[in-house]
Input
Amino acid sequence: MKLLQKAIKNKLKKKKKAEIRKQKKLERNMKSVTKPEEPQKQSTKPALAIDDKIIYSKFDFAFSDSKSKNNNSQKDPKRALEKIEKTRAKLKELENSGRNAKASALKMKQSWISALQKAEGVKVKDDVDLIKKSIKKKEHKKNKSKKMWEERNKQVELRKEEQQKKRRDNIADRNKKKKQKKIKRAIKKGRIIQ
Output
């Protein structure tokens, strides 16, 4: 009787402990699910003192996205060359049609754009000779890697064929040895007479 009561008490204790563990686990999950408070956004205005004087120790630099806009044409030299050729063709067309003012305005605008980009620290790729050189370099690199890859494939094929030949030779040799062994046994037993 006492043993029965003790067993029941132990079962109840275990159930209570399991429930407590579940509850703690749920609480931990709820804490991880709740979002942490986001820091407040700083104002873009300069901080002002009580006397409406600007405090110069706090700065807010606004970053422009001008670099990300020109990335595609800047990275690919072929695109950059096409762009330059298009603008040159457009300028020639304007000069030939007699709109010299518009052509000079376009030239001025492009020179200003490149100057501003250079001032921002963007690499301006407007030298045709350098762009052609980089295209040639890129093509050479591509051809070289292609040749290396083909050479590698040839080597892999040769190695594969050598291994297959070696395997065939080993299998043939093993079969030959088995046959010789059988013949020797047959001679020993007197089944085959030489």
In short: The two ends are 94 Å apart (CA to CA). The chain has a mean pLDDT of 83. Residues 71-130 form one domain. Residues 128-189 form the longest helix (62 residues).
